[in-house]
Fold this protein.
Amino acid sequence: MSIPASYYLTLSAVLFSIGGIGLLVRRNVLVMFMCVELMLNAANLAFVTFARELNDVGGQVVVFFVLVVAAAEVVVGLGIIVAIFRRRVGATADDVHVLKG
Amino acid sequence: MIHAVFLIPLFPLVGFAVLAPLGRRLGNPLAGWIATAAVAASFVVTCIVFAGLFELAPAHRSFTQTWWNWFSADRLHVTAGALVDPLSMTMAAFVTGVSTLIHLYSIGYMEHDPQFSKFFVYLNLFVASMLLLVLGSNLVMTFLGWEGVGVCSYFLIAFWFDRPSAASAGKKAMIFNRIGDAGFLLAMFLTFERTGSLQYLTIFHRLGHVGSDSLIAIALLLFLGAAGKSAQLPLYPWLADAMEGPTPISALIHAATMVTAGVYLMVRINPILHAAPAAAHVVAIVGALTAFLGATIACAQSDIKKILAYSTISQLGYMFLAVGVGAYVAAIFLMLTHAFYKALLFLGAGSVIHAMNDEQNTKAMGGLRKLMPITAVTFLIAWFSIGGIPPFSGFWSKGEVLLNAYGYSAWLYGLGALTALLTAYYLGRCYMLTFSGQARWVEARPSGDGHQVAAAGPAGEPASSPAEQKAGQPALHPHDPGWVMTLPLVVLAVASVFGGFIDLPFHPNFIFLERWLDPVVGHSLFNGHFSVATEWTFALVDAAIALLGVAIAVTLWRSAVNRPEVEPTFLQRAWYIDWGYDRLLARSSTMLAVAISAVVESKIIDGAVNGVGSLFRNSGGVLRRAQTGYVRNYALGIMAGVVVLLAYLASRAFT
Amino acid sequence: MDHLLLAATVPDALTFAVAAAISVVGALGVVLSRNPVHSALMLILTLFGVAVLFVEQDAQFLAAVQVIVYAGAIVVLFLFVIMLLGVDRQEALRSEPMPAQRWLALGLGLLALAEVILLAKGHWPTGAHSVAGKARVAGHSNTFVLGRALFTTYLFPFEITSALLVIAVVGAAVLARRPRRPESSLDEPTPEGPAFGGESLGDGGAGRALEPGGEQATDGEPIGEVLEESEGVTVVGGPEE
């Protein structure tokens, strides 16, 4: 008998929370980005777990698409970061707040 | 040849289309000649079609010509086409004929106007619209022409729009006509609703299925439209103000053609009127009252064009009287002869005004007979004609109207006869003041300095800039204008003298017009068959009345200039009706508007708008603090949302 | 739950425990390490742990992709960018513009975690099966099953991802190029404020020389312009710099 799904899901939730808290707390844009990746991985883990639990390949397909989207997101996101930080001194997300109301 | 009807409105329309973009380049006087040629071509075509119609048997003289399907909506099918019958062709012939003469005259009258070509653009558009109105085979086509002539009338009244009086006169005409047009539109709606068609001939065929109340409503609503267009009570005041336009316009639009459109419409729908006697009764009474009112006002005016304007209103009243009593032939007869002598009067007045450097006050004229013989003689002919002196045309046409009125009601006849007396009198007054007596303009306008006299030819003054001339006040040398202006005078004078012979009483062989129009109006004509003796009696009475009026005018005004006892103020002020309209309608609605603008506009509407604005402004001022600009802060918001969503899911999962 | 864990076979339980520990440690390392390079390395740790868990759950293909794409490509990309921008850049921890942010974040995160764990024990409101087919088919590998689903049921989304990737590549290329000098284009505003300093004058020529083709340059023009303007605004309006 293999590991029950609730263990995986709990682990997924823990990873997700760590990522979320990190995203909210850290101010280095790159690290924030990595935290987003963490959250995506947590979600992927949950998907794979459900795929196994429900014996449905759909969950794995979704993970596949999430990987593609994550790759694209990282490419564009890092492009934006590079474009912004090429011309400013600070390295933190708080330096960009032009849209302050 | 009879199928060339479409060419009749097409020629002026082409003239308009050519002159509108190119008129300024073609210049003066070429643009005027092109416009005149377009209308003259139209006149020639009309005559050919007329002749073609004449050769047909009387029973086949009325038919509809369809050009194309204009638009359709459900049951409504409106075609563009012409209703060719003796009535419409008679109208078309006289519209194009008089228009040609007035175009020709305008070349001379407007020769110094800087907007020369624009004037002819409007004129051609007007003629095209008028012909559409006349020829239209259904109410929509007629309405198209109706609005076309209305808008041209507006353009031309306000032609010298830099004068405030002209601009406001144009607006006044527009507004009064809109009231009438509303009636016309409602009549169209009702007609379609009751008969399912707007085609004249179809409507007439289906009249039997329409209730009498609806017929009365349709007839009265159409009469409202006609009253607006033809300046009848209570919508007449605009016509007097319309004299602000150039004098050829007053002659063409506001005397001869456009204002008779109402009469034409009434005759056109004669089966409806015949089926609704109550409406016809109203038309007759309004016509008689308007005729009397206009004549009385004309007795006390001193502006030559105002006299003629009120005279026009009075004569139009006669026509409506004729329509109301069912004498449609008499109405058309009077319309035709009136077009001749009223156009002649206006053109003569135009010559005088032109020669007097835009002076319009008859009291400042006088003694022009020797200096302007052609104008004086033609004006005299017009006076005798309108006054009803035999054998001039007005005698016959007015006599027929009065005779028919007598057959309908003695009261209406009495009012009409009184008006006839006044007509002969007030035009005599106008003639005497203008052409005989002392040359009052000599002392009224002292000779200017020598160089001014040399510089200014009297007939060659720019007609458009009276202010300049008033400043300079050069000496006047009035004389008859050139041939382009006198030729129309002479032609119209001949027509005024002999125009009456197209429909002579006394013997059935002479009633050409009546027999000609018989296919159109015959079955609904009021049939007052009078004996020859009665006709002779009335003719003599009419002649006596006319001569009496002429005699009074000559006696009173041979030498006098001011006779306050016969020019009471309340007639000078036109029975205070304009004043009453101003007080009752204009002032009160202005006050209402002011009150509304003070209360509703500034308090309620502005308050609502400003309140909404400040609401968003203030709430924005508060809420903007939520926009910190920090990405992490926004992410925190997302996280809070996630927590709330999860809480909701948890609550669902465990309950 | 311990008895459940023990109920599994020992290798399974052991694998899960180790991989889970690696993942959590890596995740904590990403968040807690001060140097971004360390964060990136810790992220690799987490990704490996998750990949092991994928294998554990019969998703061998995804595990391979996870290692190749994530650890091999994405994290390397992160490291590139870190190096490009300068490793020594530090977060200015002294000045926290939002004092409540950190504690609120911690509180909300833990609350969300508690809620998810709570939900993991409860009756899930979802759970309807998709139409993709079974995950375990006798005689076929995971790669075969996943590939068949991708190229049949999910063919259209799969094709759409190609468009997404192309867009991402073009977008990255556009974002990465240097903006043109303002003088080189007619429709750009003329430099008025101090925002357009010597920078654009200095590297404008080089930037144009590096551009691969004219069409890309024109495509990317608005973004460069916007960024440059935003820079100008912040430089003027941001006193903290």
Q: What stands out?
A: Confidence is low (pLDDT under 50) at residues 183-241 of chain C. Chain C touches chain B through 17 residues (CB under 8 Å).
